[in-house]
Amino acid sequence: MQQLHAGRPVRAVVMQSLRERSLYRGSVPAAVSAVTENGVVFAANAVLKRAHNPRGETLSLTETACLGGAAGVFSATAIAPSEVIKVRMQANPAAWAGPVDCVVRTVRGEGAASLFRGLPAQLARDVPFNFAFFGAYETVSRGVAALRGVGKAELRVADQVAAGGLAGAAAWFVTLPADVVKTRVSMIREHDPRLGNLTLRVVRDTYNEGGVRAFFRGLAAVSVRAFPVNGALFASYEACSRWL
Hints:
Blueprint (H helix, E strand, L loop, with lengths): L9 H10 L7 H26 L8 H31 L7 H12 L8 H30 L8 H31 L10 H13 L8 H25 L1
């Protein structure tokens, strides 16, 4: 939402959404996208780690970040369709009866390939995002463990939440420009002979609208959201890993 209403105060956007009963439009595909993304990226990261390091030795920070970025390829591909549907429902909520209607009409009108229209921009966001995400989490976790004089596995839940929150905020700062582009590409509803250059065209148009600052609209809002969400995500992942 913060990208779609760029330039307007957050309070004004929220109040308008409440009046229009559209604050939760797109919540179903958003939930599907979030569950799928986190499940796929953590699973892919674990598989890649085992394949790269079958002996279970401690990975370097560079290796950890690179394997995280590689896992982003799988998650980006998995969530591309739900991201397209989510963005379209949030951008024009009155146009769709619901998620299923949006999927059916999009496929009928533009073909199944249209569900992957934002994939190049999605990859441009998710690969560096997960590179920074896993790399920053490991960096902060090891740093806190060293300060406390304990092993990483002995960190408290509060430490894991802080490390995950900082990792999420850092990753969004790095990749918000790609997310802005991905969102705008996903909103396009047309048969365009220049679709092969669509992402580059959106980058150019966004820059022409507001320069570099246009790619960072909504940074404060997304950072505030990212800290608790990703802090809880990593703390839950660590707890489940230990329990299993």
